[in-house]
Amino acid sequence: MFAGPDPDEYSKCVHCGFCLEVCPTYQQLSDENHSPRGRVFLIKQVAEGTLPLEAAVDPVFTCLDCRACETVCPSGVPVGHLIEMSRGQIHAARTQAQKQSRRERWMLRGLFSHPKRLRLAGNILRFYQVSGLRQLARSVGALKLLPSHLQEIEAGLPTVPLKPKERSLPLPVPHPASSSGRQPVRAALLTGCVMDVLFADVNDATARVIARNHMTVVVPEGQVCCGALHVHAGDREEAQALARRNIDAFLGAGSDFVVTNSAGCGAAMKEYGDLLRDDPAYREKAKTFSAMVRDISELLIEQGFDPPTGSLDQQVTYHDACHLCHAQGIREQPRQLIGAIAGVELVEMPDSDRCCGSAGVYNLTHPDMARQLLERKITDIPAEAEAVVMGNPGCMIQIRAGLAARERSTPVWHTVQLLDMAYQAEDQSSKR
Ligand code: SF4
Ligand code: SF4
């Protein structure tokens, strides 16, 4: 029997309304039911039996789970956790919402949970992108047969790197000789589900940057999707199964840290302790695992990094991914890394921590809201920015799609890619 939201969590809300003005869905809809305060109240009413579960379905699933409300809440209401538990409750109760999300459930259980199927899908996508099929589809207008939000997402997808399977990272990536005298650190890299297929180049850059900073990179065999998308969709059972597999894979790898370059994965893995709190066999291991998780920017600042001497000479702006800034409190570390690169000037964008509308698979399940938020995000990108930098793959796809829709060619980089470029520039200048 699924326990549902915790009364101790929703009872913390004092209805002050400080959260309203930062909630993207409330900003767009001006409807109390689509505000953090309203959602918490609906969840409370359902739990107390004064409202049927179905009445909460739309507000709970229209939430982005962006956690901007948690950043400003003076009472410490864990709105994101309440939303996720409420979704789990809805999922377990087999309501209409579950019937409406069959496609989403197929993607989550049938695709993201299976690395081999994802690679196959990636290879098919790559064939489409590089064989001329994409160009043909565009020139004859075939893409117009797709719903408009899928057309936009298609435009935001990066070209799948060549044969992801064969490009897998060397095991382990040794750290170069260090003159610092620091103890060698072993960092186990989560290659991720989407990252491993669409952004294998970001994984490669991550491994190079870690190694460049005198740590050894290991890529544990047997690792799988982190389960973040499943938690967001309310499928906690599948998320727990994936978490157990990752815990076994990573704790068996004998590393000091579990490192990720995906904000959503990092936030989810830091909460494995909560996800598996009712599992006596994994409860303690999950806590140990969660304590080892670091975002790549967090790891580099915590362990110390060598400021690159290579110069990049460009103005960039930075988008705060919700699950980095709101869920993990990581705001300064990426800015410190960017600020350490010679020639790079950071031009802040307004409301850099407002959700871009990606939010896992939200841009597939709620395309209209996702598009409205993307429009606002793209408008906020300063005209002088020569690149947009961020730390989450979903945001990278979403913002690329938004830029493409406005025919802007501004590149989108992961923070670690920018740092890697600066290290490569340093290598090139030393060869001259
Ligand atoms: S800021 Fe926190 S306490 Fe205030 S209404 Fe929002 S959730 Fe409730
Ligand atoms: S998580 Fe985001 S969308 Fe959901 S209630 Fe909080 S601020 Fe609003």
From TrEMBL:
What the entry lists under InterPro entries is as follows: 4Fe4S_Fe-S-bd, 4Fe4S_Fe_S_CS, Cys_rich_dom, Glc_ox_4Fe-4S, Helical_ferredxn
Q: Does the keyword Metal-binding apply?
A: yes
Pfam families in alphabetical order: CCG, Fer4_8
- Domain of life, source organism: Bacteria
Q: EC number(s)?
A: 1.1.99.14
Task: List cofactor names only.
Answer: [4Fe-4S] cluster
Record keywords, A-Z: 4Fe-4S, Electron transport, Iron, Iron-sulfur, Metal-binding, Repeat, Transport
Domain 4Fe-4S ferredoxin-type, by residue range, is 3-34, 53-83
Q: Which Gene3D superfamilies match?
A: Alpha-helical ferredoxin
Q: What class of enzyme is it?
A: oxidoreductase
Q: Which residues form the signal peptide?
A: none
Annotated coiled-coil positions are none
Enumerate the catalysed reactions: (R)-lactate + A = pyruvate + AH2; glycolate + A = glyoxylate + AH2
Record text on cofactor binding: Binds 2 [4Fe-4S] clusters.
Please explain the role this protein plays, according to its UniProt record. Component of a complex that catalyzes the oxidation of glycolate to glyoxylate.
Q: What is this protein identified as? A: Glycolate oxidase iron-sulfur subunit
Instruction: Provide the organism lineage as a comma list.
Output: Bacteria, Bacillati, Bacillota, Clostridia, Eubacteriales
